[in-house]
């Protein structure tokens, strides 16, 4: 229950007759209320500017502004509308009471005042006022709790959305990884079969070139073109394997053009038709000492970044490749570079461009101008890292509304393009010994026997690794060397080598493969294999390797 005696509570008495005010004061003083006194309606609103009472006792009949008008104004004001108003009047007509109640009055006290009536009505409305305030406080507490819980739920929902977005992103990464693994497996099989075919083409082409030709014959020129095309095909297979391999590759001297063409084919298949691709590629640009997979990643990142800024409005993506020379004066414009020849890869777009502030931060990790979920902010940072790790740099030029240009500079070594020496000295080194030659391709076994027997070796060839193993077990001391393919049905080359070495541990074994890798070489060495050969291999190289191995026995 609410205590009626509440000194902290305030009652405002409004009456134009002083004796009525004094009469009410005598009744209320004994309860210790704070009293506010007003003898007209205007004074009411002056007092309300300082303190809001808990209850207002309001006389109806007053000059200038009567109680009905005061009540109407009080109830139309947001600040005072909830203060209970008890009208005091000697008017007993029902119409007057109804008018007051319609204006928002809470109750009536009739004149002359009866102490018991005043106290009873005040007590009732004071209790209701206190309960109303408690209700408002409880409601506010509940509203605050609901707001807090809503904020917490909203925050949890945002976190859940971020987690779901991250989950989807990881799913895409996983799917891409699985896709690349499948492509890698498929490429490995293609490389094996294709390199077997190339070994036959290159081998027989070299053998044909050894035959004496009439002086006016064009056969030698034809064989040279066939061999050159075969070695180009070999490089193409190697590029396919490089792009699909997930492990870090060793740097080697490579040409940028095949990598750039590979990226362009990907972009043409995946970019929107609203983006036009223009290319200006000079073939003779020398070679760079680089990791092919990382250079591929660098170029792809720059092109994808350019494509993304033109997604909405379309535009033109221009890709250029050339060789430049930086003299001591011009090289000062490029940080961390020295004077010399460089391969220049330029990626330009006609997108919205960037201001200088963004250009200065464009290579910062995780910095991005894209919407959330559209990028990680690592693409350009990775590209810059790759360029720097290869002794180069990336230079950016951009202006708002005028597109952007990214120039990659990589130190190059000027070399002449490879041409097989099909017309050169065709004298093959001689050798002697018994060779066990194993390959699941009939044509490669036939070719191996022809080549090795031509220079003095005795060769037993098998297309079945199991049959070769059984033959070796019969007379293990008969053979001086084993040459085996890696990928074969039933019993693969690595396992064949292990079983042969288990029978006779000192026999040299050479492993031929179309997919040579550091991991394979390590496993081969651990198994006791003396040499891992990448197919296809020129005859001279093969024979020299065999002679060197047998010379060490």
Automatic annotation (TrEMBL):
Reactions listed under catalytic activity: ATP + protein L-histidine = ADP + protein N-phospho-L-histidine
Residues that bear 4-aspartylphosphate: 59, 485
UniProt xrefs under CDD domains: HisKA (cd00082), REC (cd00156)
UniProtKB keywords: Coiled coil, Kinase, Phosphoprotein, Transferase
Enzyme class: transferase
Domain of life: Bacteria
Domain (Response regulatory) ranges: 10-126, 434-550
Every Histidine kinase domain range: 189-414
InterPro entries, per the entry: CheY-like_superfamily, HATPase_C_sf, HATPase_dom, His_kinase_dom, HisK_dim/P_dom, HisK_dim/P_sf, Sig_transdc_His_kin-like_C, Sig_transdc_resp-reg_receiver
UniProt key word Nucleotide-binding: no
MF terms in GO: phosphorelay sensor kinase activity
SUPFAM superfamilies cross-referenced by the UniProt entry: ATPase domain of HSP90 chaperone/DNA topoisomerase II/histidine kinase, CheY-like, Homodimeric domain of signal transducing histidine kinase
EC number(s) reported in the record: 2.7.13.3
Coiled coil, from the record: 150-180
PANTHER family tied to this protein: HYBRID SIGNAL TRANSDUCTION HISTIDINE KINASE C, TWO-COMPONENT HISTIDINE KINASE
Protein name as catalogued: histidine kinase
Source species of the chain: Desulfobacula phenolica
């Amino acid at each position: 229950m609410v205590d009626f005696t509440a000194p902290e509570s305030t009652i405002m008495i409004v009456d134009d007759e002083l004796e009525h005010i004094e009469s009410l004061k005598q009744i209320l003083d004994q309860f210790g209320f704070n009293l506010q006194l007003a003898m007209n309606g205007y004074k009411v609103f002056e007092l309300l500017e300082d303190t809001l009472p808990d209850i207002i006792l309001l006389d109806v009949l007053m000059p200038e502004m009567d109680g009905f008008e005061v009540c109407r104004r009080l109830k139309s004001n947001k600040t005072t509308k909830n203060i209970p108003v008890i009208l005091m009047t000697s008017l007993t007509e029902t119409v007057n009471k109804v008018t007051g109640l319609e204006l928002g009055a809470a109750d009536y006290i009739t004149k002359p005042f009866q102490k018991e009536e005043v106290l009873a009505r005040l007590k009732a409305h004071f209790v209701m006022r206190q309960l109303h305030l408690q209700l408002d406080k409880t409601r506010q507490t509940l509203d605050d709790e609901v707001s807090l819980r809503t904020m917490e739920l909203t925050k949890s929902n945002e976190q859940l959305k971020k987690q779901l977005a991250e989950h989807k992103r990881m799913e895409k990464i996983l799917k891409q990884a699985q896709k690349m693994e499948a492509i890698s497996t498929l490429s490995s099989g293609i490389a094996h079969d294709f390199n077997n075919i190339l070994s036959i083409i290159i081998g027989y082409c070299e053998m044909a070139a050894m035959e004496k030709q009439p002086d006016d014959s064009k056969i030698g020129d034809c064989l040279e073109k066939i061999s050159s095309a075969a070695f180009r095909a070999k490089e193409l297979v190697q590029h396919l394997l490089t792009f699909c391999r997930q492990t870090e590759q060793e740097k080697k001297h490579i040409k940028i053009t095949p990598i750039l063409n590979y990226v362009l084919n990907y972009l043409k298949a995946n970019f929107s038709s609203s983006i036009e691709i223009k290319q200006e590629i000079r073939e003779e640009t020398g070679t760079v000492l680089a990791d092919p997979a990382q250079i591929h990643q660098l170029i792809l990142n720059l092109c994808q970044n350019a494509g993304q800024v033109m997604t909405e409005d379309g535009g033109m993506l221009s890709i250029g490749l050339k060789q430049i020379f930086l003299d001591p004066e011009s090289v000062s414009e490029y940080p961390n570079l020295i004077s010399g020849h460089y391969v220049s890869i330029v990626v330009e777009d006609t997108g919205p461009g960037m201001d200088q502030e963004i250009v200065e931060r464009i290579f910062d990790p995780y910095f991005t101008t894209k919407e959330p979920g559209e990028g990680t902010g690592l693409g350009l940072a990775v590209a810059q890292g790759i360029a720097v790790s290869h002794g180069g740099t990336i230079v950016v030029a951009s202006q708002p509304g005028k597109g952007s240009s990214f120039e990659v500079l990589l130190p190059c070594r000027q070399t002449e393009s490879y041409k097989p020496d099909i017309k050169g000295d065709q004298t093959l080194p001689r050798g002697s010994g018994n060779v066990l030659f194993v390959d699941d391709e009939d044509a490669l076994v036939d070719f191996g026997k022809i080549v090795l027997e031509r220079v003095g070796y005795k060769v037993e060839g098998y297309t079945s690794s199991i049959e070769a193993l059984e033959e070796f077990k019969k007379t293990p001391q008969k053979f001086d060397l084993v040459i085996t393919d890696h990928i074969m049905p039933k019993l693969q080359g690595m396992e064949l080598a292990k079983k042969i070495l288990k029978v006779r541990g000192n026999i040299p074994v050479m492993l031929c493969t179309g997919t040579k890798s550091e991991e394979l070489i390590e496993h081969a060495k651990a198994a006791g294999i003396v040499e891992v050969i990448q197919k296809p291999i020129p005859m001279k190289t093969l024979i020299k390797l065999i002679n060197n191995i047998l010379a060490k026995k």
